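Session log. Operator J.P. requested a structure for one protein chain; no other inputs attached. Running the standard single-chain path with token output.
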Amino acid sequence: MTLTDGTYRLGPSTARLLIKTGRAGLGRRVGHDLTIEATRWSGEAVVVVGDPDKSSVSVTVETGSLEVREGVGGLKPLTDADRAEIKRTLGDKALLHTAEHSTITFRSTRITGTPQSFEITGDLTIKGRTHPVTVNGKGNGNRLLRGWATVTQSTWGIKPYSAFLGALRLADEVRVEFEAVGLELVDGPG
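Structure written below.
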């Protein structure tokens, strides 16, 4: 089934939303490159195939729903205790401050391209700060879409995590990725 004009519902039942981190600093061999998944989020994509500028995307992520799925590298494997500590640290005031800022939002401002190769420019709001982000994406002609964007944490007032007096720290840039399979058409031709 090909992607057609209409409104599509987005969320964990049809798509994955991942954050991938990297390491920096002299102690980077000790740490892990993390894959973190948003488990509670929702969104909507309005698709106008023949006029992509009339298309739009909006997504809202619950900051408390971020779960560590994988840790690659490091001297020791990532443990359940490590995952719990990372989740606690994510909610910390220096990072996402989830008590005060319970959501992250993205609203498109411009979409160009085709369902097979597209670019979505929009406003990303994290911790009450809004800055533009560009998402690059590809589709296979069916309802399978993949995309990615690079986000520099410090732009939104997020201090990248560090340990061992700064010898180990997360890189300031993280990669946000999505993969949508079998999008649910809620309005439009089926």
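Operator note: Helices lie at 80-90.
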